[in-house]
Design a protein that fits this description.
141 residues; alpha+beta; Alpha-Beta Plaits; three-stranded antiparallel sheet; 8 strands; 12% helix; 24% strand; globular; binds FE2/S2 (inorganic) cluster
């Protein structure tokens, strides 16, 4: 695990933050700014919403940079009840909502749930996933 990964907890749920894969979609800061405020340190304040609301928000994180586990359970991928929806983000990735399996060219499979961001600009160092590089190259399309 990267040493840049940070964890925040309210005793019930632990939020795991991996800045290296954040695509700065900022859904968290826009939808729940009392908890996720990039201008504050620490930027995640677990006292500003209940566990259910924090978990609901984390499930919307398109890059997987934010994840969570319940403190009384092991970290796990959770299937979500959702229709599969594909959304093209202007100047950014393709977002896929729902449970999917991604098969790589070497035959490995990775299961994803909630929201997955796939690179559309070609500059990601973590293909097929978006790693935020579209901002650096000023991708338009
Ligand atoms: S679309 Fe985000 S890195 Fe390519």
């Amino acid at each position: 695990m990267s040493d840049k990964i940070k964890k925040y907890t309210n005793g019930e749920v632990t939020v795991v933050w991996n800045p290296e894969i954040c695509i700065h979609a900022a859904f968290c800061a826009k939808d729940l700014p009392k908890v996720f405020n990039p201008k504050k340190r620490p930027w995640v304040n677990m006292d500003e919403a209940n566990t259910e609301r924090i978990v609901e928000q984390i499930k919307k994180c398109p890059s997987g940079a934010l994840s969570y586990y319940m403190n009384n359970e092991e970290e796990k991928i959770e299937d979500v009840q959702a229709e599969n929806i594909i959304e093209v983000v202007k100047d950014g990735p393709v977002l896929i909502y729902g449970n999917i399996t991604i098969k790589s060219e070497n035959g490995t499979e990775k299961k994803e749930s909630k929201v997955t961001a796939l690179c559309r600009c070609g500059a990601s160092n973590n293909k097929p996933f978006c790693d935020g590089a579209h901002k650096k190259i000023n991708f338009q399309g």
